[in-house]
Design goal:
The complex is a heterodimer of chains A (406) and B (290). Chain A has 406 residues and is of the alpha/beta class. Chain A has two domains: 194 residues, Rossmann fold (3-Layer(aba) Sandwich); 152 residues, Response regulator (Rossmann fold), CATH 3.40.50. In chain A, the strands form three sheets. A seven-stranded mixed sheet of chain A has the order 7-6-8-9-10-13-14, sandwiched between helices. The longest helix of chain A is centred in the first third of the chain and has 21 residues. The N terminus of chain A is likely disordered. Chain B has one domain: ABC transporter involved in vitamin B12 uptake, BtuC. Chain B has twelve helices and two strands, in the order ααααββαααααααα. Chain B has a two-stranded antiparallel sheet. In chain B, a hairpin with a 2-residue loop joins strand 1 and strand 2. The chains are: A alpha/beta (406), B mainly alpha (290).
Chain lengths: 406, 290
């Protein structure tokens, strides 16, 4: 501190200097010709256990911001560009919440977060405190949308919808082939995701005439799958349903081949690796014929294919994280455009009235009910000849279902 | 009740998986069992070895088994350097310091790997990756058979090395009576570093034999560290043949536990054995009372 009595800078001079300095610092903002940027908080798990997916999400969001700015920004606000406020949740819900609070303090007027369901629950709740619009990019847990938070919206489908579609699709695929499959074994990881899936499927599948022979749980990480493969082999099911994360899915699929188990189908719900380009590239033989129920872009949409090409030109795998987060940002931008304002209530009203269709997803125009886009749905994919093809619903299908798989 | 026809394949699988565990524990039994260095970085160093095997395959096209000629010597040098340059200096001979140093080392290694290689899971694709041998009606993957042979050979070689060579005798002398060893002219620091280096070199062998049937990512070591410590205690501290038998027992217990109790609950068998051994035979199966 300076002191007037000891001959430092006097109070008046200090105040004058401070004022001048503040003026200088503020001046560029006042003088700049371009309108001020609109800040959007992007909170993703870019470090920690979920870092691969978090990084993919962030890349998708940044692609969207770049595209929107290149096309002239938010036109109703004088072409204001979007500006990212990046946050890292470190794969932890509590840090996701504090990063959301920080982004809002930094001036973010909307939040796109947080990949995992548990993190989305925390970030949306934090944003709700200031009524800041929050778009859930991936998180599929139904509980995210059923808490009555007015600020929270989800573009993609929730878990209940995905699981119900998975069951009815499996039934339809089976019936179309003359119902060759009657028995099922479910292999699932033992945390919320896998256990929830197994529970739901074991309750629903018998209603369609499938017999559940065995439900096998395993921890994550799992070092060896031989034992589980042996149990599957002994049960000899027509259909194997794995519900686990990438590493375990890969080990399991490899072991199934080693133990020469040949089911009529391997069918999964949000399968960790089943619709992953990386899995198909690394293990084309183990991946061949595997079916999945998952998020996917509309393969017949030119817009989706154009974005896929752009993402791949940047060295990205065009995974669901990339296009779901891209669309979450674009959906928010569309609402700001129509609101012509960054006022929270106006943007939320615009999101509620959203009929946006420039997403390249197999969804139709957005239709929000309690924040959930009710047009959102998963599709069925199958690995055929080293490609991941959409096989259902029919209007989006690129290839015929191969069932029983060769 | 599980199907009895899969009992035999399950046991066989337990034996081969256990041999892999034993390979990882062999290095630890030398470091922890003989020198009493609690090496928390064992898992992280295994990860380093696995990445070395992966990158040699990816960029030079070297088969993981050819890497046996390259990775173990490199890992030996890394271990020797770590012990001489870091663990001795930072540890000041106190167990709790060494524990923290190796724990810190594991955190640093894992996060460096995360930064450099990302958290992607990597695998090698070999011609024999999916081949199996038919052993009396059970299919055993070829990489696991090779790993089993490798574990037995490595355990016997280590045992012979400790019993027959001067360095082996020196290691045992240092482990028993450090001051006395110093008095008769043994370079204690060198012996410590050699033992640590050999332990990590053996981990390099484990990495080469594990990679064809497994994967690598920055946190891959976590799944193995606790098992390796359990095997060292079960087999008897510092006993190589004990580690081999301990590994096989753990593998079979895990396999049968998984079969009868489910894979999630089956793990308790391993730790139940650990507690029973500590209660009733604290010196381990082949260990001697000190």
């Amino acid at each position: 501190m300076t002191n007037a009595k000891t001959g430092g800078i006097g109070r008046r001079r200090f105040l004058a200097g401070t004022a001048a300095a503040t003026g200088l610092l503020a001046a560029p903002g006042l003088l700049r010709a371009a309108p001020e940027g609109i800040k959007i908080g992007l909170i993703h798990p870019v470090t920690g256990a979920l870092s691969y997916s978090g990084t993919q999400c962030r890349a998708g969001a940044e692609l969207a911001i770049a595209d929107i700015n290149a096309a002239g920004g938010i036109k109703s606000m004088g072409g204001a560009p979007l500006q990212a406020v990046l946050g890292d949740s470190q794969s932890k819900p509590s840090i996701g919440a504090s990063e959301t609070a920080r982004a809002i303090e930094d001036g973010a007027i909307g939040i796109v977060a947080g990949y995992a369901s548990s993190i989305c629950l925390a970030t949306s709740q934090e944003a709700a405190k200031t009524n800041t619009p929050h778009i859930v990019d991936v998180g599929v847990a139904d509980s995210i949308m059923t808490r009555g938070l007015k600020n929270t919206f989800r573009f993609g489908p929730g878990y209940g919808k995905i699981a119900r579609d998975a069951v009815t699709s499996l039934d339809a695929i089976n019936k179309a082939a003359g119902s060759p499959a009657k028995t099922v074994v479910i292999v699932h990881e033992d945390s919320a995701f896998g256990t929830g899936t197994a529970k739901l499927l074991s309750a629903e599948l018998p209603k369609y005439g499938f017999k559940i022979l065995k439900v096998i749980a395993h921890p994550t990480p799992m070092r060896d799958f031989t034992n589980i493969a042996l149990q599957v082999k002994a049960a000899n099911p027509d259909i194997i349903i794995p519900a686990n994360y990438y590493n375990e899915y890969v080990l399991f699929a490899r072991t199934i081949r080693q133990q020469q188990i040949k089911p009529k189908a391997i069918y999964s719900v949000l399968g960790g690796a089943a619709s992953s380009y990386k899995f198909v590239k690394d293990f084309p033989e183990a991946a061949e014929g595997v079916m999945d129920t998952n998020h996917w872009f509309n393969p017949k949409s030119d817009l989706a294919l154009k974005r896929k090409k752009e993402a791949e030109a940047k060295g990205l795998y065009y995974t669901y994280e990339v296009y779901l987060t891209y669309n979450a940002v674009a959906l928010l931008a569309d609402a700001i455009e129509r609101a012509g304002s960054t006022d929270h209530d106006k943007v939320i009203a615009a999101l509620n009235a959203s009929t946006w269709d420039k997403h390249g997803m197999p969804y139709g125009p957005t239709k929000m009910v309690d924040g959930q886009n009710t047009g959102a749905q998963p599709v069925n994919t199958q690995v055929q000849g080293g490609q991941i093809d959409v096989i259902r619903p029919a209007e989006f299908a690129q290839a015929q279902v191969k069932f029983p798989m060769a | 009740m599980p199907d009895m026809t899969i009992l035999w394949p399950a046991i066989l699988n337990g034996v081969t998986t256990g041999a892999l565990y034993a390979l990882i524990a062999l290095g630890l039994t030398l470091i922890y069992g003989v020198l009493h260095i609690i090496n928390f970085a064992h898992g992280a160093l295994l990860m380093v070895g696995l990445y070395a095997v992966y990158f040699l395959w990816r960029f030079l096209g070297l088969d993981p088994y050819v890497s046996l000629l390259i990775v173990p010597p490199l890992m030996f040098a890394l271990g020797y350097g770590l012990q001489r340059g870091l663990i001795t200096r930072a540890g000041h001979g106190r167990d709790e310091n060494i524990l923290l140093v190796t724990l810190g080392l594991s955190i640093i290694l894992e996060n460096l790997a995360l930064m450099a290689f990302s958290s992607d899971t990597q695998t090698v694709d070999t011609a024999y990756g999916f081949s199996t041998l038919d052993v009396l009606g059970a299919f055993v993957p070829v990489p696991k058979v090779v790993a089993f042979g490798g574990a037995v050979a490595t355990a016997l070689a280590l045992w012979a090395f400790m019993a027959r060579t001067d360095l082996g005798r020196a290691i045992r002398a240092v482990a028993k009576e450090k001051k006395g060893a110093q008095l008769v002219g043994i370079d204690v620091n060198h012996v410590y570093a050699m033992s640590f280096g050999i332990g990590i070199g053996v981990l390099g062998i484990a990495a080469c034999l594990l990679m064809p049937s497994y994967y690598v990512n920055p946190s891959v070591g976590h799944g193995f560290v606790l098992i390796a410590f359990t095997i060292v205690v079960l087999g008897g501290m510092g006993s190589f043949v004990g580690a081999l038998i301990g590994g096989v027992i753990i593998g079979v217990v895990e396999a049968l536990g998984g079969l009868f109790l489910g894979a999630s609950l089956g793990q308790i068998g391993i730790f139940a054995i650990f507690i029973l051994i500590l209660l009733f035979r604290p010196q381990g199966l082949l260990g001697r009372l000190q």
